[in-house]
Amino acid sequence: MDGTIEKAYTTKEISLTLNIGSSTLRKWCLALEENGYQFARTDNQRRLFVDRDLVALKYFQKLVQGENFSLENAAKVIASKYKEKASESRTPSVLLENEEEQHALERSYNEDILELKEVVNKQNELIKNLIARMDQQQKYIEERMNKKDDLLLEALLESQETKQLLLAAQEISQEAKRGEEKKPHKGIMKWFSKE
């Protein structure tokens, strides 16, 4: 220990930093403590968190929320990695044991965040490409449907015209029949006239 005093954080500050509820943080801390990780505590037994705890909890969050570890498995990983470095003091003034290792862990965490951001950016690009493709497909489908509608309308109009022609032909035919009934057929008239 080099005599440097490390800042201690409250449960509320850590909850806000990790963007989780205080009850979730409590569950995580209990899981870690069950696996041997120790947090600094005040005289009235409230947990205090130091930078090293924050780094451990961020890694715990990454395992649980990012990689779908169970609380128990994540706690085992974190406890085994940070157990010997866990806070042992029971007062708010906690000494920093290994600043270089903490910075290395923070750099590693930052690199992981950059990696995740890169993955998210790639996924967003893929989503944009898929949306553009879907828009193209939708446009193609609409064009095809419009062509089909036009063809169907054209066929329907032709059908109506044909029906009208047939009706007109029927009327002419019926008129012709009516006219033939009144006038004797020319062929019959010729036959009668030959006699």
Plain-language structure description:
This protein has a domain at 5-97: Multidrug-efflux Transporter Regulator, Chain: A, Domain 2 (Orthogonal Bundle), CATH 1.10.1660.10. It is mainly alpha-helical. Helix 1 (11-18) crosses helix 2 (22-34), helix 2 (22-34) packs across helix 4 and helix 3 (51-66) runs antiparallel to helix 4 (71-82). Helix content is 73%, strand content 4%.
CATH level 1 class label of the domain at 5-97: Mainly Alpha
| The CATH architecture of the domain at 5-97 | Orthogonal Bundle
What is the H-and-E element order? Answer: EHHEEHHEHH
> What percentage of amino acids are in beta strands?
under 5%
Percent of residues in helices comes to over 70%
Beta strand count: 4
In the CATH hierarchy, the third-tier topology of the domain at 5-97 is known as Multidrug-efflux Transporter Regulator, Chain: A, Domain 2
> From the helix content, strand content and strand pairing, which structural class follows?
mainly alpha
Q: What's the layout of helices and strands?
A:
Blueprint: E1 5-6, H1 11-18, H2 22-34, E2 40-41, E3 47-48, H3 51-66, H4 71-82, E4 94-95, H5 99-182, H6 186-194
Antiparallel strand pairs: 1-4, 2-3
